[in-house]
């Protein structure tokens, strides 16, 4: 199958190349089901320098991209979402796509930093304030049906074809690259004292009326005996966090990866979806304790307060572009393997937004990651948080040629840099926050990445 497939792709692309005058060509074909993490793991072996992974929280849509045919990158600040949207539309105009009637085409995948006004540190050197790309090869799995989309520059398909041939040979042979998790050598929570000082200062500033809520994050750094391979972490995240968005974006050998429960926004035609997620407590050790903790969370003033700011902002943002907005009157519980949250889903009908990115521009950062009022809170984070967030807590996701797509908020995440890994966690500070409880909350939020890295209670 795989061998025939290679010839088919080569023939097709040559045929399209001869016919088209456009600078880019793209071709979609159905594919036998492939394990997406296995597909992802083959990227570097086939000399693809970039790779990404996306799985939505229902596991209905999975995208795996290898290589990069077109990239949109900008260090702009206010305009970054708009710039990416405009360039994407121009690219779509320059591309001939052949899909054989299949409802799939090329997508743009990538992410944005949390705060474009925060100067870059060395850690996030490889991650600009906005970077989205069209992969050379895209595996898409939707509702159990898989497709492959190959996108190349006209007249330059040969190099990509050689990589694709290697890819299909390996898929055919079914040989898995042998990777395992190296052992951890060192675990260090960074700048805890400064973080506590920032929390205390923020609480005082909230009392004096400077703002209502600010989310403050911190970092833990791990050193391993050997390089940490992203596909191993991804496979573990997939098993351990089945109801979260799974994402990975790797370039220059550095991989930003995580399993986030938080949807920022999804656009599907003129329907729009978002999630308010804020307010947290750990899971109980017994069913009874778990239910008690959940009940406590549902009625705790401080957590309801934290949650309320998010609901208010998302409701306003959706109402500004949608004819009708639906949301339940009070939050429900979202129970994840290590933590439970207050959760309010939001649906918007007849959305007038030009694309998913114009929604992202309106909604990022929500008070679940920034605070209220937004500008003052983000300024406070920039000044007092002892951390370069980089892409942590930023929007990560995809957009199709029609402007539909979905973005998650990149929390419960980490940055793999060879043998070194940084993980991040934050919490919403409000007037009646207790610094020690907030510290404990961030510890619970580290658990998903720690377990995926083999550093957990179960190891
Ligand atoms: C900022 C994070 O979580 C946010 C999302 C859900 C609950 C949160 C909270 O209860 O503080 C945070 O706002 C994080 O996980 O790093
Ligand atoms: Mg909280």
Walk me through this protein's architecture:
Helix content is 33%, strand content 33%. With 459 residues, the chain is an alpha+beta fold. The protein has two domains: 2-173, no CATH class; 184-231 and 261-452, Anthranilate synthase (4-Layer Sandwich), CATH 3.60.120. Strand 17 and strand 18 (339-351) form a beta hairpin. The longest helix has 21 residues, at 301-321. The structure holds ligand ISC and magnesium ion. Magnesium ion (MG) binds next to strand 15 and strand 23. Keywords: Isomerase, Magnesium, Menaquinone biosynthesis, Metal-binding. It is an enzyme of class 5 (isomerase). This is Isochorismate synthase MenF.
Number of helical stretches of at least 4 residues: 11
Largest sheet: 13 strands, mixed
* Subunit arrangement of the protein: single chain
Mean pLDDT: 94
What gyration radius follows from the Cα positions, in whole Å? 22 Å
How many β-strands, per DSSP? 23
Domain Chorismate-utilising enzyme C-terminal: 192-445
Cofactor: Mg(2+)
Organism: Parageobacillus caldoxylosilyticus NBRC 107762
Catalytic activity: chorismate = isochorismate
């Amino acid at each position: 199958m795989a061998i025939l497939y290679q010839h088919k792709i080569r023939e097709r692309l040559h045929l399209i190349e001869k016919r088209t005058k456009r600078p880019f060509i793209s071709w979609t074909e159905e594919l036998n089901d492939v394990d997406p993490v296995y597909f992802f793991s083959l990227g570097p072996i086939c000399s693809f320098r970039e790779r990404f992974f996306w799985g939505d929280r229902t596991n209905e849509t999975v995208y795996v991209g290898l290589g990069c045919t077109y990239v949109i990158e900008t260090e702009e600040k206010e305009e970054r979402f708009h710039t990416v949207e405009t360039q994407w539309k121009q690219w779509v105009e320059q591309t001939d796509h052949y899909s054989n009637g299949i409802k799939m085409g090329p997508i743009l995948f990538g992410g944005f930093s949390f705060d474009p006004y925060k100067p870059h540190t060395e850690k996030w050197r490889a991650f600009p304030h906005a970077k989205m790309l069209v992969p050379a090869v895209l595996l898409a799995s939707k509702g159990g049906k898989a497709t492959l989309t190959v996108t190349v520059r006209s007249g330059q398909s040969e190099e990509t074809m050689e990589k694709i041939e290697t890819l299909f040979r390996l898929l055919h042979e079914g040989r898995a690259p042998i990777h395992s998790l190296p052992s951890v050598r060192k675990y260090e929570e960074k700048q805890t004292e400064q973080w506590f000082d920032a929390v205390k200062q923020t609480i005082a500033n909230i009392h004096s009326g400077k703002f209502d809520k600010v989310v403050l994050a911190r970092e833990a750094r791990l050193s391993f005996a050997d390089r940490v391979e992203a596909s191993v972490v991804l496979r573990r995240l997939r098993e351990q966090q089945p109801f979260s968005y799974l994402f990975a974006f790797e370039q220059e050998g550095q991989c930003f990866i995580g399993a986030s429960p938080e949807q920022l926004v999804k656009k599907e035609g003129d329907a729009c979806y978002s999630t308010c997620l804020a307010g947290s407590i750990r899971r109980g050790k017994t069913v009874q304790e778990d239910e008690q903790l959940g009940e406590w969370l549902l009625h705790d003033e401080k957590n309801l307060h934290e949650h309320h700011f998010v609901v208010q902002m998302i409701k306003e943002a959706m109402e500004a572009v949608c004819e009708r907005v639906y949301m339940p009157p009070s939050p429900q519980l979202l129970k994840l393997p290590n933590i439970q949250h207050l959760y309010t889903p939001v649906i918007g009908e007849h959305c007038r937004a030009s694309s998913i990115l114009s929604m992202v521009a309106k909604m990022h950062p929500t008070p679940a990651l920034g605070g209220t009022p937004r500008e003052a809170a983000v300024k406070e984070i920039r000044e007092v948080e002892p951390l370069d967030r980089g892409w942590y807590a930023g929007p990560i996701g995809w957009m199709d040629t029609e402007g539909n797509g979905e973005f998650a908020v990149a929390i419960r995440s980490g940055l793999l840099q060879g043998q070194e890994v940084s993980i991040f966690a934050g919490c919403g500070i409000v007037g009646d926050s207790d610094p020690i409880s907030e510290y404990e909350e961030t510890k619970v939020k580290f658990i998903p990445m720690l377990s995926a890295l083999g550093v957990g209670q179960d190891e």
